[in-house]
Design a protein that fits this description.
The complex is a heterotetramer of chains A (302), B (351), C (527) and D (569). Chain C is α+β, with helices and mostly antiparallel strands. Chain C has 15 helices and 22 strands. A 7-stranded mixed beta sheet of chain C has the order 8-9-10-1-11-20-12, with no helix packed on it. In chain C, helix 7 (267-275) packs antiparallel against helix 9 and helix 13 (442-453) packs antiparallel against helix 14. The relative contact order of chain C is 0.16. Chain D folds into 2 domains: 9-261, 3-Layer(aba) Sandwich (Rossmann fold); 311-320 and 327-560, 3-Layer(aba) Sandwich (Rossmann fold), CATH 3.40.50. Chain D has a 6-stranded mixed beta sheet with strand order 6-7-8-3-9-10, sandwiched between helices. Chain D is globular. The chains are: A mainly alpha (302), B mainly alpha (351), C alpha+beta (527), D alpha/beta (569). Bound molecules: adenosine-5'-triphosphate (2 copies), magnesium ion (MG) (2 copies) and nickel (II) ion.
């Protein structure tokens, strides 16, 4: 009984980010749809990582026959500028995935920071945040994107990421706020106040971890939106058409009339890849829904 | 005991006569209104600043176009500036002039489409967008919601997985990509549908059946694109909320009382699940006025989205300002209307 | 290419005497504006209103039009002889008073004076058959410029209250066509039966749709379009309908160095950079191999062959030669180290090339340049702001290198004047009207001043040689390749289109040169 | 007792087992249940939380939803196996068949449909009431559950919990059932309302003569109304006997244990397992028997000399109107009291009487609208957010709901370490030692093992102990316990109460004990305050007040306490 003074095992801390991650990953993986999604995403990430090894040619290596049909040298044919479509597709995956993940991550981080403080603070500051978020919600998204893109032109993918993040964080912040508000009324939050915790710690150690699934969901949603937004911006010619991404491939496909010249792969392949990547994220989100909504997770015990 | 989420509802909440509640309510409304006005003002100001943050002036944009055909002289620039009525005066003067315009709803003359006025341009474009995007948004919401109800009610069967998966896959394609393919095949290869415009090339807009039929025919492909790409969101949203209402006790109780499955599905589960979806619907409706830039671009559809694209790429401040204002206000108003609708549909918020 | 090849399927309801032209783009609707002085006018206004003189920018030839010709009794006076027997489409006769009125209108409404002719004109006098323009200063080339002004009927325009916003919905002109049906998505123009050279006009009607995507152009039986189309043989020509094309050079695409900045102000650096360029490859990348590399002379070949200085080797065309390039760089103090071109302090030569977003051929060209210079160890970045911002950067001189077009006006003087004249010089940060590279050479200015007052063609030719020498030796810009004039035509209904064999005019569908084409075509069934 | 037993069997259950899930992960919620019900019987089904009562109820009514499924066994209703019915047949036979009033009857109504429509939906589904009689029938039904006609046009959200519970009973009744299952029809209701609803059910059963199953974890309530009682434990029916036999001659240990926790707080002497009556104790000087498994240790606690008392004077709290158009709520109305060091004070009253609000006021969670609250020389009402720590090191709270009071993601150790670090300044191994000591104090051993657990690995009683341990971590002088046992089973209650009592006795911690359960107030407090609509209506020595209540409200509260021994005895 009572206290031992010797040989105390190491102090166990709150679940480390890794443990949380592992838990989230396991829950997501347990969902069939999410498993498919993760597999597709994983495949894309592998392709992107090993693009330098897999891609038969450089991304903008040209000088091949223009608008050629598929052949042994060029499985998916060549572009009007004489570049290898397959190589562009592989290299392009780097940008699309990078934009999706980074923009998704950034807008999630902003949404979390703002959403949580918004949900936790009261009075004047809550009004201020409310005002700012509302502003970003009512301001038209794509036009705002276009204007910012025009303003920041020439910034390459960094610019696209900024644009997507600026126009994309507000929705997440709103969702996270309402969740924060409902969590902050839970007893354990009040209990943390009684434990002498400071507001910062309450928000980030007590409330935040309980929203993991929501945040993860928000991340995948934002990443999907970012991938589609990148493609849209590039297609409108407002991105940086000197880089090779799936979006710019579509832009050039349209520009060089791939439909007329019969360069099907040039138009189909990037579109399909975008859709597959976006779908994979949506599928993963199904798994995330499972954690956030216990009712969807039938059979599990409390 | 039951579960950790069980909330205790005090039993003694019989309404007590009002004491000073009226004044508080008035104060509340005033605060709300104040915030609304403040948001509106900020949005209006932002709409003013954003275009001006873009480097280059409207004249530069016009010149750049001309310069592609050969050198342009200084005189040309001066003439163009004079023609376009490029803003004069410092930014503060411009701002006050602009506020004046907002208050009188007179946005002056467009730069890009000089000498057409902004109201002229908007009033020709708006009906098409409102009809096309508006109708499709509503239709997509209705169909998507119904499919979502079906999917949730039959969850675990193919009626669940098919619409859910197909919907989310279809909405994962970039808008313009779907549009391009539809246009190419249905328009150019099979020649089933017209490839551009809102009505036949020689028609003049009127309200005859012939013209309306023609207009519908032209709207079909763009409408289909928007439908295909937006359906998935509604299906998923509705399905997920409804699955959670299906677990609610009043649904179980309705079943225990032997209500017809249809009644339970629609009047109990779906009826409650639709409420949260309304919020997204409000935002979507508000976005209608902004049109669908990508789709209108691909189909050469003369709506607000196309106009907006032109305005932005040509740095047409007056047009941009008017369109942004319209979009902002319509989002605000749509949300307001949805709030009211919420009150009608949900007695809990009604008083 | 392969698979689904959509062929051209002309609308059977369009008769043989009617031409379908992609000349006017609505955005996406047409506005009924035929005021010829407005930027936003309908393109067909050019088919209705005519100038005194048509200057063809491709051939550089002048065609007397509403004037039967002009003379310069002295370098500051131009006398246009007005054509007789021309009537307005409402039947009223066309007179020299109309010409004077039109000039006066541009003075009264400066916004209409897009060419800035009142920068040269002192006063205008008329007789029954002539219009005499007194210039503010001796300026021979100005005669040409002034002559391209479109002329409107005084009897109609004098009653217009506010010409500045007048949209001229029912145009009355002297041109070969009058307005037919107008709808927001398409309008037609009909042949003017009383046109002064009506016998030469073959097409009875012209249809101008508001939307002319490349898919439309290739598949809907267009007779004439002006547009760069990728893989033209695989698309436009393959679509059938007796489609052919002609892509004559319409200007020179060049790299503008910012001459106010080091090291671009060092001729050796420019020479080094120039020698490192494989111009043919850049042209191929930009225009899919349809355009030739441009010589370092600011002269369009082959049409301006006569103006070319024969003493310039290889017609001004410079070959890529890395060894020479490195020699020049060495003289400028740059050497190659570890694959990098560095200055004495070891810093890599590094700059950016500015081009406009959306000008895709330019972008492809710039990327090729980037590759070529990069191979030499130069760090080249590509900056592509929106067109408006690009234009501003160019005018303000806020760039290192910029992609741009030069020449191609059809006038040798103007081609060089806009490129080299010190008149345009402005400090960096202020907008220069031309000479964006800010080339400051008293020598060049002296030649230009002399050119301005030279009436004798032989003297003009000689001065032109000297200007070419300057461009060739001092590299104010680095020419790359010719910018194309992208004429797509169908011989199904009409023949006699300008072509390589019969290069009588630019294949453009806008401005006044189409008048040359429209009065040159023959209907197929007539033959 | 008027028994209309005609012995006609209406429901027969053979060897019924219900599982949640399949295979290894399955929860066997109901195991091998055999039972027979005759027409007109009123049967009680008791058992602790999670013993499978609701699961059985759902199975009987054919409402089991995945993942629940009938593993084996048969349910014969009127001789027919309900498993053999198609969904549509099952639906049709709900009229005149088995009706069920759900455990969470408060949430069993569709929030967006008026009460009238709820009735109409049922009439329309079964067609047993003709269209022209819909209104009359609905009126008749709400009348039967003692509701006014006006409720028909209201929406569920506009009714109180008790009214909603009655509406769902009326709805079930409208099916004209032969058997009605009431699943905890009164949990989550106020004691007074609970009492009234139970009376209605009993009256109805007598009048309509349907067979009734009353599910409850409260043996007292069941014994008050049922003739026959089945006791469920871990999915099995462990005892099935008449009410009288259960009370006087319980066979099963578990049943006996349940019974032992009932006593009448008005009695002269109240003794519960683990508790000797306070007055007796005072008289004899005997220590109460310890409820905790280990005697508490006081190693790291110095006896405090600077004990402060809480002085509350004339405090009122007005909440803004919960919804627009409604009036504001006067939650606490001019309340004064003093809590001396080492004293324990009970705060009792029906739901919504303002008990929790007082707790919030004296812990500075809420600010009073008027009045003063002094803790020692600290003016609690004037504290700002940043100064809370100072107060919370002396005044701690034991939360009502042990499930929501613990962050599900933090281990017990983390939860306890935080206040230790924040208030005592101990770090590292010292802090850990303190945490283990706290766990030991609340009787959670082996301490190391419990320290590493996450809340979901703990039982309700264990969680409640962790919550208490957390409250102790700062060495507080005063503990506010807001209904600390209302969420716990009788079997767990005693332990927790005993623990609280220990703390006060051994450490001189003063305690404000908030409850609506008068019995527990009787055993753990010296003094009592009865609240009604924010006002103190009666106060004094706990035993005195409960034995001789003077206020009419206190009397009603006492009357509402189910007393199994009352009429059976
Ligand atoms: N949906 C479910 N999935 C898995 N297990 C469940 C589910 N619902 C209940 N259980 C488990 O089945 C067992 C019996 O639960 P049941 O709800 O029947 O208990 P109960 O006796 O009604 O308890 P209470 O008094 O709390 O209402 C419990 O162990 C519970 O955890
Ligand atoms: N934050 C709040 N805003 C408005 N009204 C409130 C608020 N908190 C409590 N009330 C109201 O104040 C009254 C007293 O509530 P309180 O929670 O103190 O009751 P209680 O005695 O603790 O009840 P219970 O036994 O149900 O816990 C109730 O009418 C309640 O509705
Ligand atoms: Mg239960
Ligand atoms: Mg309470
Ligand atoms: Ni004809």
């Amino acid at each position: 009984m009572t206290t031992q003074t010797t040989a105390l095992p190491a102090i166990e801390k709150a679940p480390s980010p890794w443990q949380v991650f592992a838990r989230v990953a396991a829950t997501i993986w347990s969902n069939g749809k999410a498993r498919i999604g993760i597999s597709i995403l994983g495949l894309f990430i592998l392709l992107a990582l090993f693009a330098p090894l897999i891609a038969p040619y450089g991304a903008s290596e040209n000088g091949f026959e223009r608008s050629a049909d598929s052949s042994w040298e060029h499985w998916l044919g060549t572009t009007a500028a004489g570049e290898d479509v397959l190589s562009q597709l592989l290299w392009g995956s780097q940008i699309s995935i990078f934009v999706g993940l980074v923009a998704g991550l950034l807008s999630t981080v902003i949404a979390v920071l703002i959403g949580l403080s918004w949900g936790y603070v009261r009075g004047f500051w809550a009004d201020v945040i409310n005002f700012v978020v509302n502003l970003f919600l009512v301001i038209p998204g794509l036009p705002l994107m276009i204007v910012i893109a025009a303003y920041l032109s020439g910034g390459g993918i960094g610019m696209i990421i900024i644009v997507v993040v600026i126009t994309g964080w507000a929705w997440g912040a709103r969702v996270l706020r309402s969740q924060t508000q409902s969590l902050r009324s839970r007893d354990f939050v009040t209990a943390a106040v009684f434990s002498g915790e400071r507001p910062f710690r309450i928000v980030f150690r007590e409330i935040l971890p309980n929203m993991t699934s929501l945040i993860v969901g928000n991340f995948f949603g934002a990443a999907t939106a970012a991938i589609l937004a990148e493609a849209g911006l590039e297609y409108l010619g407002l991105g940086d058409s000197s880089i090779v991404s799936w979006g710019t491939m579509l832009f050039w496909a349209q520009n060089s009339n791939a439909l007329l010249t019969g360069q099907w792969a040039l138009l189909f392949a990037p579109g399909l890849c975008i859709a597959l990547l976006a779908t994979s994220l949506t599928l993963i989100n199904f798994g995330v829904d499972g954690i956030s909504n216990p009712r969807l997770r039938e059979g599990a015990k409390k | 005991m039951t579960s950790s989420t069980l909330t205790r509802t005090p039993d003694a909440t019989a309404p007590v006569p009002e004491t000073g509640g009226g004044r508080r309510a008035a104060g509340f409304a005033l605060r709300k209104l104040g915030l609304f006005v403040l948001t509106l003002w900020a949005a209006i100001t932002l709409n003013f600043l954003l275009p001006r943050l873009m480097p280059g002036s409207p004249a530069d944009a016009a010149l750049a176009k001309l310069a592609q055909n050969g050198p342009v002289s200084n005189a040309t620039k001066a003439a163009i500036e004079a023609q376009l009525g490029v803003p004069t005066g410092n930014i503060v003067e411009q701002y006050f002039a602009y506020i004046g315009q907002v208050l009188t709803l007179d946005f002056g003359v467009s730069y890009t489409f000089y000498p057409q006025t902004v109201s002229e341009l908007v009033s020709t474009a708006l009906p098409y967008t409102l009809v096309l995007v508006g109708v499709v948004t509503v239709v997509a919401f209705v169909i998507g919601t119904l499919l979502g109800v079906l999917a949730a009610w039959k969850r675990g069967t193919w009626l669940d997985s098919l619409p859910t998966l197909a919907g989310s896959f279809a909405s994962a394609f970039p808008y313009f990509w779907t549009a391009l393919l539809l246009l190419f095949f249905a328009g150019y290869v099979w020649r089933l549908f017209p490839t551009s415009g809102a009505y036949g090339p020689t028609a003049t807009p009127n309200l005859s059946f012939e013209f309306l039929g023609d207009a519908l025919y032209h709207a079909f492909l763009p409408a289909l694109t928007i439908l295909i790409t937006s359906l998935g969101g509604w299906i998923l949203g509705m399905r997920n909320t409804m699955i959670s209402t299906l677990g609610d006790d009043y649904v179980t109780f309705a079943e225990a009382n032997g209500l017809k499955p249809r009644t339970v599905a629609l009047r109990y589960a779906a009826r409650n699940a639709i409420l949260p979806n309304l919020t997204s619907f409000g935002l979507a409706l508000g976005g209608v006025v902004g049109g669908s830039i990508l789709v209108e671009r691909v189909f050469g559809y003369p709506g607000v989205g196309y106009l907006l694209f032109n305005a932005v790429t040509n740095q047409d401040y007056p047009l941009m300002q008017a369109l942004f204002l319209m979009i902002t206000v319509s989002v605000l108003v749509a949300n307001f209307l949805v709030d009211i609708l919420y009150g009608v549909l949900d007695p809990r918020t009604r008083r | 290419a392969c698979s689904i090849q959509i062929t051209s399927a002309p609308d059977p309801s369009i008769p043989d005497d009617t031409m379908l032209v992609a000349a006017d783009n609505g955005s996406p609707l047409f506005e009924r504006n035929f005021n010829p002085y407005m930027v936003n006018k309908r393109t067909a206004a050019f088919y209705m209103y005519e100038p005194l003189v048509i200057l063809d920018n491709v051939t550089g030839e002048e065609h007397p039009w509403l004037a039967t010709g002009y003379e310069l009794p002295d370098p500051s006076t131009v006398v246009y002889e007005i054509r007789d027997g021309v009537t307005w489409s409402d039947g009223e006769p066309f007179t020299s008073a109309d010409v004077a009125y039109s000039f006066q209108l541009l003075k009264d409404v400066p916004a209409f004076d897009i060419q800035g002719i009142w920068g040269y004109i002192e006063s205008v006098e008329t007789t029954e058959t002539t219009v005499t323009v007194h210039l503010t200063a001796p300026d021979v080339p100005a005669a040409q410029l002034i002559g391209t002004t479109l002329i409107v009927p005084e009897h109609i325009w004098k009653d217009v209250d506010d010409p500045e916003t007048y949209r001229n919905p029912d145009p009355v002109g002297t041109g070969p066509y009058t307005l037919g049906n107008f709808a927001a998505q398409q309008y037609t123009v009909d042949k003017n039966p009383d046109y002064w050279q009506a016998d030469k006009v073959a097409a009875e009607h012209i249809i101008l749709p508001a939307t002319n995507t490349q898919l439309d152009v290739a598949t809907k039986g267009y007779d004439w379009a002006y547009s760069f189309i990728s893989d033209v043989d695989g698309t436009w020509v393959a679509a059938g309908n007796k489609n052919t094309y002609w892509f004559p050079p319409g200007g020179t695409i060049a790299l503008f160095p910012n001459l106010t900045k080091a090291p671009f102000n060092d001729l050796n650096v420019r020479k080094g950079l120039s020698a490192a360029l494989d111009r043919a490859a850049v042209g191929d990348a930009a225009a899919e191999g349809y355009m030739e590399p441009a010589g370092q002379t600011n002269i369009l070949l082959p049409f301006q062959q006569d103006a070319l200085d024969p003493s310039i080797p290889n017609a001004g065309l410079l070959e890529k030669d890395d060894a020479t390039a490195l020699e020049f760089f060495a003289q400028a103090g740059y050497t190659q180290q570890d694959g990098k071109l560095v200055d004495a302090g070891g810093t890599q030569l590094s700059f950016s090339i500015t081009t406009a977003n959306g000008y895709n051929d330019w972008l492809k060209g710039v990327q090729e340049v980037q590759k070529q210079w990069g191979a030499l160890g130069i760090d080249v970045k590509v900056d592509s702001p929106q067109p408006a911002a690009y234009q501003l950067a160019l005018r303000n001189g806020e760039y290192d290198f910029a992609m741009g077009g030069t020449g191609g006006t059809g006038s040798i003087f103007r081609d060089f004047n806009t490129l080299l004249s010190s008149d345009f010089l402005k400090p960096v940060g202020e907008e220069a009207g031309n000479n964006f590279e800010r080339f400051d050479s008293p020598e060049a200015q002296a030649i230009l001043d002399q050119y301005k007052v030279a009436i004798d063609p032989a003297e003009q030719l000689e001065l032109g040689y000297q200007l070419q020498q300057i461009v060739y030796d001092q590299l104010p810009v680095l020419s790359l390749y010719y910018g194309g004039s992208w004429g797509l035509v169908s011989e199904a209904k009409f023949t006699g289109w300008p072509s390589e064999d019969d290069p009588y005019a630019s294949p453009k569908t806008y401005e006044s040169t189409p008048l040359l084409v429209l009065t040159h075509l023959k209907a197929v069934d007539d033959d | 007792m008027t028994n209309v037993q005609n012995n006609e069997t209406i429901l027969e259950v053979h060897d019924l087992s219900v599982d949640y899930g399949y295979g290894d992960e399955a929860t066997h919620a109901v195991r091998n249940v055999e039972l027979r019900l005759a027409r007109g019987e009123f049967v009680g089904l008791v058992g602790e939380s999670g013993s499978g009562k609701s699961t059985l109820g759902f199975a009987l009514t054919g409402l089991s939803k995945p993942p629940a499924h009938i593993e084996k066994g048969r349910i014969l209703f009127g001789g027919k196996d309900i498993a053999s019915l198609s969904p549509e047949q099952l639906r049709e036979q709900r009229h005149g068949g088995i009706a069920m009033v759900l455990q969470s009857g408060m949430n069993a109504l569709n929030p967006v449909r008026s009460i009238r429509n709820h009735f109409v939906d049922i009439f329309r589904a079964h067609g047993h009431v003709t269209h022209d009689r819909w209104n009359d029938r609905a009126l008749e039904l709400v009348g039967k559950v003692e509701l006014p006609a006006t409720v028909l046009d209201r929406f569920p959200g506009e009714l109180s919990g008790g009214m909603r519970q009655r509406v769902s009973i009326a709805l079930a009744l409208s099916l004209e059932p032969q058997l009605m299952v009431f699943d905890e029809p009164t949990t989550a209701l106020d004691v007074l309302v609970q009492h009234a609803v139970m009376n209605t059910i009993i009256e109805l059963q007598k009048a309509e003569n349907f067979t009734a199953i009353l599910i409850s974890h409260d043996l007292g309530i069941v014994l008050e109304s049922a003739q026959r009682v089945m006791v469920m434990h871990e999915g099995r029916i462990v005892e099935d006997a008449s009410a009288r036999d259960i009370l006087h001659n319980p066979q099963n240990d578990y049943t006996r244990m349940l019974l032992s926790h009932y006593a009448d707080p008005r009695a002269e002497v109240v003794e519960l397992p683990g508790f000797v009556d306070r007055n007796e104790r005072a008289a004899t000087g005997a220590k109460r028997a310890s409820g905790a498994t280990h005697p508490p240790t006081v190693s790291s606690r110095e006896q405090r000399t600077d004990q402060k008392s809480m002085v509350v004077t004339g405090v009122s709290k007005v909440y803004p109107a919960p919804r627009r158009g409604e009036s504001q709520v006067l939650a606490v109305d001019d309340v004064s009291f003093t809590l001396e060091p080492g004293q324990s004070l009970a705060l009792v009253g029906a739901s919504g009487s303002g008990k929790s609000t007082i707790a919030k006021l004296i812990t500075a969670v809420e600010k009073p609208s008027s009045g003063s609250i002094m803790f020692g020389d600290v003016d609690v009402a004037k504290l700002r957010r940043g100064q809370f720590r100072q107060l919370h090191s002396d005044v701690q709270m034991v939360f009502q709901d042990p499930y929501s009071a613990l962050n599900p993601l933090h281990t017990v150790e983390y939860t306890l370490t935080r206040p230790v670090v924040n208030f005592t300044g101990l770090r590292g191994q010292d802090a850990r030692r303190r945490v283990l000591e706290l766990l030991d104090t609340v009787g959670l051993s082996p301490v190391e093992e419990f320290a590493a657990k996450l809340p979901h690995q703990l039982s309700g009683g264990q969680r409640q102990r962790v919550v208490i341990a957390r409250a102790l971590a700062s060495n507080p002088q005063m503990i506010i316990a807001d209904e600390p046992v209302s969420m716990l089973d009788v079997s767990l209650r005693a332990g927790v109460l005993a623990l609280l009592e220990d703390l006060r006795e051994q450490w001189g911690v003063s305690m404000l004990y908030i409850t609506h359960d008068l019995l527990s107030a009787r055993v753990v407090t010296d003094n009592i305050m009865v609240l009604n609509q924010g006002r103190v209506v009666e106060r004094g020595n706990t035993a005195d007040v409960l034995r001789n209540p003077t206020d009419e409200y206190t009397v009603r509260l006492l009357d509402a306490i189910p007393n199994p021994r009352k009429d059976v005895a």
